[in-house]
Design a protein that fits this description.
Layout: E1 12-21, H1 24-35, E2 43-51, E3 54-64, E4 71-76, E5 91-97, H2 100-109, E6 114-118, E7 128-132, E8 138-142, H3 145-159
Parallel strand pairs: 1-4, 5-8
Antiparallel strand pairs: 1-5, 2-3, 2-6, 3-4, 6-7, 7-8
Length: 162
Amino acid sequence: MTFLFGAPGKGLDLYHIGLTVPDLRAAMEQYSDAFGFGWATVRESTHAVVVDGEQRQAQIAVTYSVQGPPYLELIEERRGAVWGADGLALTHVGFWAEDVSAAMRALDASGVAVRVQADPADGRPLRYSYHRFGGGSWLELVHPSFEADLTGWIAKTLDDGN
């Protein structure tokens, strides 16, 4: 698999670039003022994840630009959480992957091991994973089942006039 200057690999489609920021609403305003971005409604939630083999709960506050793809995703730092300065300090590129588990194995075989993944304990197909890549960046693999949710989230935001 080639990720830096070539195709991202069979079955992977770029859909977002993610930035972790200290203050989500301030970053939204800054990116709006500087680049004209509009934003989906902020979502806050807690996810069951596996970090380096250890099960945890991870809090997240997140939004996506309504312009895209590729979308700009902003994630607010949360102390002690996966998405934070003392966690992964995550800056990432997200790819749709029809079979996240198979894509994880392919990345692992190329030396890009999974560090964080959704907790697959509920028996559903793996929904997402994060892989540390060269230069301090991360790759995120996301199952396309999230695409309808993302599209609906952005459409609802636009319909609500936000």
